[in-house]
Amino acid sequence: MITYLGNLGSGQQVYVENQGTQTIVTLFSSSPGQQQSQSNSFSTGSWVKPPALFRTASGVILQIKTQAGNYFVRLQTNGMSSLNETPSLSNAENIPLQQTETNPTSTMPSMPPMQPIEPMKPMEPMKPMEPLRMGDMEMQMSPTMQMRMGNMELKMPPMGTGNPAKDGFCTQCGNQVSTQDKFCSRCGYQLR
Ligand SMILES: [Zn+2]
User: Fold this and answer.
1) Which residues lie near ion ligand 1 (Cβ < 5 Å)?
2) Minimal CA–CA distance to 155: which of 145, 140, 142, 141?
3) Could you read off the pLDDT tens digit of each residue along the chain, which spans 192 residues?
4) Where are the domains of the chain?
5) 192 alpha carbon to ligand 1 midpoint, in Å?
6) Cα of 147 to ligand 1 centre, how many Å?
7) CA 190 to ligand 1 centroid distance, Å
8) Could you check whether the bond before residue 113 is cis, i.e. omega within 30 degrees of 0?
9) Å from CA of 188 to ligand 1 middle
10) Cα–Cα distance for residue pair 177/81, rounded to 1 Å
11) Nearest Cα to 158, choosing from 143, 146, 148, 177?
12) What is the whole-number distance in angstroms between the Cα of residue 148 and the centre of ligand 1?
């Protein structure tokens, strides 16, 4: 889809696009901190030539050239309207229109092509965490959460599904076990 872009000055841009027999005109106005856009669709018929843009005393005129003849749209800051009669363009200043791939509904800059994603490296097995010590408090997060404070001791079973062999830790002692293990190698707890 080829879109034509015209710069109207003072932060205003117009995008013109032919979709079937419809001409889509989108007017963008941007001032610091805000952006506005309005879009109108006109039944012009298919284009036979690229559109043209003129600055006249009565506003900016967009000329759409179709098989049925010329179609004119007046662009103003507060809107746009189709013209029933051919405006006088003898003293009009031509505003150049350039072809663009930009989608008028998106003002985002086009993204650079994606780099092929490298296959993920297998994760390295986690190292057991060092016990955390604060004064007489000692905390250990894995394999089981343990907390010791003075002569107080708190132990929590590892979180999971409750299936020791599946979770990879013995529910009895927190020892790391493999899914193939039938018994914990440390405490002999029956895993399955
Ligand atoms: Zn065990």
Assistant:
1) 170, 172-173, 175, 184, 186-187, 189
2) 145
3) 789 999 998 888 999 999 999 999 999 888 888 888 899 999 999 999 999 999 998 889 999 999 889 999 999 877 899 998 888 888 899 999 999 876 555 544 445 566 666 667 776 666 666 666 767 777 776 666 677 777 777 666 655 555 655 678 888 898 888 878 888 889 998 887
4) 3-100
5) 12
6) 19
7) 8
8) no
9) 6
10) 76
11) 143
12) 20
- What 125-134 contacts at long range (C-beta under 8 Å, 24+ apart), as own/partner pairs, is none
CA of 137 to the centre of ligand 1 (A): 25
Map tokens 């039938």 to a residue: 182
Select from 136, 159, 161, 137 the least CA-distant residue to 147: 137
Closest CA to 47 of 75, 78, 29, 70: 70
* Ligand 1 centroid distance, CA of 150 (Å): 25
Token couple for 125 = 């097995």
pTM more than 0.85: no
**Contact status, residue 146 vs residue 137, Cβ threshold 8 Å:** no
